[in-house]
Design goal:
alpha+beta; three-stranded mixed beta sheet
Amino acid sequence: MAVATRGVLFEYGLSIPPLALVFDFNPQSISRSRTVTIKTGDAPGNRTGYDFLSPLETTRVAQGVELAAEGFSVDILLDATDRMDAGDNVAAMFGVQPQIDTLRSMVEPKSQGPGGLKTLSSLGIGGARAFERQETASVLIFAWGLQLLPVFLTGVTQKESLHLPNLMPYRAEMGLTMQVIESNNPFTMADKVRQTAMTALNAATGF
């Protein structure tokens, strides 16, 4: 049986309220995808790439490439049973509703507040009118295993399965979709180093 490990999702920045979530994360599957658009020109003779005879000529097979942002999706389980059994008063009263609301806040736009702090744009603190709020998305760090990736949270789905007598959920399955931020930042650069090291390890051990 697989041993549950911890995943962490937290906002990289100053926000009110602070957004962070720690959860058991050992899914049966995780879906990751990315696409590449290859430019080969429109001439009849090179619609599938220019000619080449040796490895030295492969750089001219295509006229260019466009790499789309990587996206992935995971399902996580929020369950307050253990905390309720341990006598946690917050869990006994609210179940996993605080964790659900944290995820919902992570996907909502933010407005710039005083002192560089960001607040939920729905609070209306950033401006009297919507067009004055200068809304931005939260930059989140998603950590699990050797992965430490900056992401945008682009979608959240929830399925509540068990509830307390006050109708607060204490077990819920959450579906998260994310887009990796692959700009020049310390997290992406570190992940590229890790990726290169793992590729070298694969070659060293005989593919």
